[in-house]
User: Which sequence fits this backbone?
C-alpha cells in the first residue's frame, strides 16, 4: 500500500483481486476461461486491462499534465481509476472495458449490448466525493469533473450527457487537451502535490 499515490500502477488493485481468485481457484478459473464464461475474476482482469490501456493513452498528454492511478476513496474498495490534473482542470476518469461489445450513449444513459448500465450516476457521485475531499485538503473549492472512458468494439454516441462526458479510449488524451485552460502551471503542481497523498482520500474521520 503506497502512501504516495504517484507510485501506483494502472489497474494494480484489480489485477491483485484477479490474481487472488486465480490462486485460490486455479482449476475453476481455467475452466471458466476455456468456455468464455463471465466471472468475477474475468471482470477484474478485463477491468485491469482497460485501465492499463487508458493509462497508455494518457502518457501522450505532455509535461503540463499530471496523472494518478488507482486513487482510493474512503476505507472501502472504491477507487478512482485515473485522476488527471492539467491546464483544463481536474478529471476523475472511470474506465469501462467492453471490447467485443456494443456501447451506446444517450443524453440520459449508457447501454451495453442493449442493457442499461448505471454508469452516469456512479461517475457523478465519484466526482462529487472527489471534489469534496480534494477541496477540503486544499482549503479551496476544487471541482473534479467526472469522465467515463469507454473501450468497445462498437461505440456510438447519440448525444453526450450534460454533466458526465463519455469518451472513447482513443480520443481521451485529445479531448482532455482540448479543454479550456482554467489552471496555471503552479495550480497544477499544487493540486498534484496534495492529491498524491493517500490521507487526502482515506481520511481518519467520518469520511473514511
Assistant:
Amino acid at each position: 500500500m503506497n502512501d504516495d499515490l504517484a507510485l501506483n500502477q494502472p489497474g494494480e488493485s484489480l489485477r491483485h483481486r484477479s490474481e487472488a481468485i486465480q490462486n485460490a481457484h486455479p482449476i475453476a478459473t481455467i475452466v471458466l476461461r476455456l468456455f468464455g464464461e463471465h466471472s468475477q475474476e474475468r471482470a477484474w482482469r478485463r477491468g485491469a486491462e482497460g485501465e492499463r490501456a487508458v493509462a497508455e493513452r494518457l502518457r501522450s498528454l505532455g509535461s503540463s499534465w499530471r496523472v494518478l492511478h488507482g486513487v482510493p476513496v474512503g476505507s472501502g474498495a472504491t477507487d478512482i481509476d485515473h485522476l488527471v490534473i492539467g491546464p483544463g482542470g481536474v478529471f476523475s476518469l472511470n474506465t469501462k472495458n467492453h471490447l467485443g461489445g456494443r456501447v451506446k450513449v444517450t443524453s440520459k444513459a449508457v447501454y451495453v449490448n442493449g442493457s442499461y448500465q448505471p454508469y452516469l450516476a456512479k461517475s457523478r457521485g465519484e466526482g462529487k466525493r472527489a471534489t469534496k475531499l480534494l477541496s477540503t485538503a486544499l482549503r479551496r473549492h476544487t471541482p473534479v469533473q467526472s469522465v467515463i472512458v469507454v473501450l468497445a468494439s462498437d461505440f456510438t454516441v447519440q448525444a453526450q450527457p450534460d454533466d458526465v462526458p463519455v469518451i472513447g479510449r482513443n480520443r481521451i488524451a485529445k479531448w482532455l487537451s482540448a479543454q479550456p485552460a482554467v489552471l496555471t502551471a503552479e495550480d497544477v503542481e499544487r493540486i498534484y502535490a496534495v492529491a498524491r497523498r493517500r490521507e487526502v482520500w482515506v481520511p481518519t474521520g467520518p469520511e473514511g
In short: Residues 63-201 form one domain.
